[in-house]
Amino acid sequence: MILDVNDLSMRFDTKTVFQDLNFQLEDGSMTALLGPNGTGKTTLIKILMGMLTPTNGSYKFSSDVKLGYVPQFRNIDSEYPLSIRAFIELNAPLFKTKKVKEQIDRQITETHLEQIQNTRMGEASGGQKQRAYLAQALLDHPNMIILDEATASLDPAAKEELMGLIKHLNQEHKITVLFVTHDIPLAKKYMSDYLYLNKGMIRQGKMKDFKEDFE
Ligand SMILES: Nc1ncnc2c1ncn2[C@@H]1O[C@H](COP(=O)(O)OP(=O)(O)OP(=O)(O)O)[C@@H](O)[C@H]1O
């Protein structure tokens, strides 16, 4: 087990987002976090990332976890001056030893950005930007990555490329994946398990058994 969540509750002032969530994630699993708009998926992720404190309950990652996080898609100004490579390097040590450069090269190759690494981030496509965020997160050598709506606003080809990449990271590098999405067909194609957050409660199961009428 890589994550154990116990009786987790979150309230903003008088608004209860969710109450007494209980679930576990297995090491090496690939889980889609599903649910209608505004049910608290981002709130749950922010709690797990330590960015918000829950009002009640607890969660525990296994002691050897190294988390990577790909935030919800943010528009980058078209004038943004850094190249894709320089953007990825924001998460690398300032002093670029040969070893650091090699690690950056490896993640750029892994995320299929080598041909366009000198393109400005402001000019990159949505899929390229999203892969640059992923490359940034991979520089820390995570064994678990959390992606928040990484495929929203991408065209079908860019979605497939990103999902193929995530599947590769899971299968070849044994990275546990938690992936927030609204795209149920995409989740059915690529993810093995689901967590479904709705009306303050959570359900868990195998993606192949997920019923659309939960929505
Ligand atoms: N800082 C905050 N203060 C008050 N209410 C908040 C705050 N953050 C989120 N909420 C509320 O909590 C609820 C859950 O929001 P959250 O963004 O987690 O939902 P979500 O499931 O990620 O939605 P979406 O699918 O639209 O991204 C919403 O009703 C939102 O308005």
Structure description:
- This protein is about 30% helix and about 25% strand.
- The mean pLDDT is about 95.
- It has 2 domains: about 25-55 and about 140-215, 3-Layer(aba) Sandwich (Rossmann fold), CATH 3.40.50.300; about 75-140, no CATH class.
- It is globular and about 45 Å long.
- The strands form 2 sheets. The chain has a 6-stranded mixed beta sheet, with helices on both faces.
- It is an alpha/beta fold.
- The structure holds adenosine-5'-triphosphate (ATP).
- Pfam families: ABC_tran.
- This is ATP-binding cassette domain-containing protein.
- It comes from Lactobacillus kitasatonis.
- Belongs to the ABC transporter superfamily.
Helix-strand layout with pairing:
Elements: E1 3-12, E2 15-25, E3 30-34, H1 41-48, E4 56-61, E5 67-70, H2 84-89, H3 98-110, H4 126-138, E6 144-148, H5 156-173, E7 176-180, H6 184-190, E8 193-198, E9 201-206
Parallel strand pairs: 3-7, 3-8, 5-6, 6-7
Antiparallel strand pairs: 1-2, 1-4, 8-9
Helix pairs in contact: 3-4, 4-5
Bound molecules: adenosine-5'-triphosphate (ATP).
Domain ABC transporter: 3-215
Pfam families: ABC_tran
GO molecular function: ATP binding
Cofactors and ligands present? adenosine-5'-triphosphate
Taken together, the total number of domains comes to: 2
Helicity level, as a percent range? 25-40%
* Number of beta-strand segments: 9
How does CATH name the architecture of the largest domain? 3-Layer(aba) Sandwich
Low-confidence stretches: none
Number of helices: 6
Give the C-level CATH assignment of the largest domain: Alpha Beta
Looking at CATH, the homologous superfamily of the largest domain is: P-loop containing nucleotide triphosphate hydrolases
Strand order, main sheet: write it out.
Answer: 5-6-7-3-8-9
Shape: globular
Assign the CATH topology of the largest domain: Rossmann fold
Helix/strand order, N-terminal first: EEEHEEHHHEHEHEE
Rg to the nearest angstrom? 18 Å
Name the beta content range: 25-35%
- Alpha carbon gap, first and last residue: 28 Å
Strand-pairing-aware structural class: alpha/beta
Largest sheet: 6 strands, mixed
Mean pLDDT: 93
Keywords: ATP-binding, Nucleotide-binding, Transport
GO molecular function, one term: ATP binding
InterPro entries: AAA+_ATPase, ABC_transporter-like_ATP-bd, Metal_Ion_Import_ABC, P-loop_NTPase
Family: Belongs to the ABC transporter superfamily.
